[in-house]
C-alpha cells in the first residue's frame, strides 16, 4: 500500500521525455510507424514492422512497470496468453461476422454489414437445430438435476465406503468429453457394445440404439447426464451440509414431517445452489458438441444435430466462416442473456431475505 | 401429569463422561433450573430429556412413562434452543405456527393461537417479518413462543437468555417467569447465569463435571450451600473462603487460626481442635466495626470498587483477599486499616472434604 501511494505521488513521466520506460511515447511512435508502414510498404514487410512495433511498446511497458511496481508484471504472462488465445480470436471472429469471408478461399474479406446475421436468422435449418438443442437441454438438464439431487441426498448421510463411492461417482466429471464420448460410443456399438449384447440376451437380435431419433437422443442424454450429474450432486451436497443441525433438531421437537422439514428448512438452503447448477448445466448443455459429435454425429439424419454441431459443420465443413461466426455470436448472446437472467433472480432473492 | 424424572442418567462420549449417574425429579408446574459452568453437562442432560441425545445408561421418565426408546417427536416436549433455531425462511407467524402443523386443527384455530401467543409475547407487530429482520430480544421471544404455543408434556429451555443484553435479560426473566407460572407444566431451564436461575426457578440443581452437586430452592441454595463449589458459584461478589485451623475452644466459643490472626466465633458446630476447615462468609455478611474484638480481624484496604448502591472493598489480610460489601455511605481510603467482624449466624463452615458442616 505504502509503496503504491509513494508511486502515485511521484510526477508521471512527461510524454516527450526520452527514457526507456516512457511507454506513452513508445506507443505514439509505434502507432505512427505502423500506420505509415501499412500504407507505404507491401504487406509482407509491414507485418514484420508492425510486429516489431508491438514488441517495442510491450518492452517499454515492462521496463516502466519494473521500475514502479513489479507486482502486475507477475500476472502479465497469464494476461498475455489470455489476450492472444481468447480475447483476440474472439474480437477477430466478431469482426469477421460482418464480412463475407471463407477460409478455404483466397479472396480477401469483404464488408457486408449485417447480412450474415440476416441469413442466419432467416435460415429454417438454424431454427430446426435450435429446436433439437432445446430438446437436448431440457432432457439432459432435467435428468442431471434429478439424478444429482438424489445422489446428494444419498451422499449427505454417513455410510460405510462413502468416501470411496463418492470418489467413484465424481470421476466422470473429471474425464474429458472425448473420453466419455468414446466410452458411450463403445457401449452403444451394435455388434459388440455392452448395451447391444445385453439386449440380445432377451431378444436374440442386435440392438442399434442410434437407429431411431429417440434412441439416439436417449443415448446422448444418458452420456451427458452420466458425466454431469455428479456436478449437480456436489453443489447440492454443499447446500445440504450448510444447513445448521439445530434447525433439524428444532423441527424434530416440533414434530414436523419429512416433507415439511425438506420444504421449510432444506430447500431454502439449497435453492440458490440448485439455481446455480441449473444455470451452469443449461449453458453447457446449450453448447453441447463433443458428446453429440462422437456418439451420433448428429444422426440419424440430422435428428440429433445440436446447434453447436451445426456451427461446426457451417464453419469447418461448408467453410462459411463468417456465417459461422455470426451464428456463434448469436449463441453467445443467448448465453449472456441466460446468465444475466439468473443473476437477476439471484439478486432479487437476496434482496428479499 | 406433566412430570419429569431422571434415574441414574449417564451419557458418555467416548471416554468422556458428560453426565454421570444423575437422579432428578421435576413435578408438575415446577420450574427447575440446571445451573453450572460451561461444559458441566447441563445441556447434554436437557438434550437427553428432549430425545435429541441417547442416554448411555439410565432412564428418562416423562409424565410417568419411560421414554428412552421414543424419538423427540414422540416424546411431545417443547424446547427453546440456545441459538433460537428459528426457521430462517419462514415469517414469525409461520415460525410460531410450525409446531401446530403436527396437530389436526383447523387453520382458523391455528391463526387464533398464533395471534394469542404473539399478543402475550408482544410480537404482534413483527408477525410478517423474517427472523433475519428481528432484534435479539424478538428472536428470543419467538423461540419461547414456538415452545409455549402447544400443549406438550413438558417445557425445556436451553440458555434462553444468554444472548440478550443485560437490560433485556432482566425484563425477559420476569416475562418468562410469568408465562411459565401460567403453564402448570414441568419445566427445565438450563443456564449458566445464577441470576436467571435464582429469579426464575422453583428449585435449582447445581451441576459440575456431570454431577449434580445440590438441588434446593433458590433461597436454600444461597443460604445453605452444601459444599464449597456451590458456595463459590452462587452469589456475587463471590463468597469469601478462608482456610483456617481450629484451636481449643474457650468458654463455648470456637477459636480459629487464619494465617497470623486468631478469631473467636460463637458457633454450635462440633469442631475438633487441630482440624483444617474453610470459613465461608458472604461479602455482605461482614460488619465494619470501630473497635477491635475477638470476633474481628484487621485488614488493609487494597482496592475500592463502587457498585452503585453499595461499595465493594478488597481487603488484604496477609496472603488472603477479603471481599467486603458495605453501604456506599461508608468511605475508606486505600491503605486504611479496618476492623471486620464475623457474624456467627452468617458464617459457613466447610470441612476438609469441602462439604458444609451442620451446626
Q: What would you call the shape of chain A?
A: globular
Based on the coordinates given, report the CATH architecture of the largest domain in chain A: Orthogonal Bundle
Helix content of chain A: over 70%
Derived from helix and strand composition plus strand pairing, the structural class of chain B reads alpha+beta
In whole angstroms, the N-to-C terminal distance of chain A is 36 Å
Structural category of chain A is: mainly alpha
Taken from the alpha-carbon principal axes, the silhouette of chain B is: elongated
Structure summary, number of beta strands of chain B: 20
What CATH architecture label of the largest domain in chain B applies? 3-Layer(aba) Sandwich
Number of folding domains of chain B? 2
Assign the CATH superfamily of the largest domain in chain B.
Answer: P-loop containing nucleotide triphosphate hydrolases
Radius of gyration of chain B: 25 Å
Mean pLDDT of chain A, as a whole number?
84
Task: Determine the strand fraction of chain B and express it as a percent band.
Answer: 35-45%
Using a beta-carbon cutoff below 8 angstroms, give the protein chain pair with the largest interface and the number of residues from each chain: A-B, 17 and 25 residues
Helix content of chain B: 10-25%
Query: Roughly how many Å is the radius of gyration of chain A?
Result: 28 Å
Number of domains of chain A: 2
User: Which CATH C-level class of the largest domain in chain B is it?
Assistant: Alpha Beta
Give the low-confidence spans of chain A: 1-10
Strand content range of chain A: under 5%
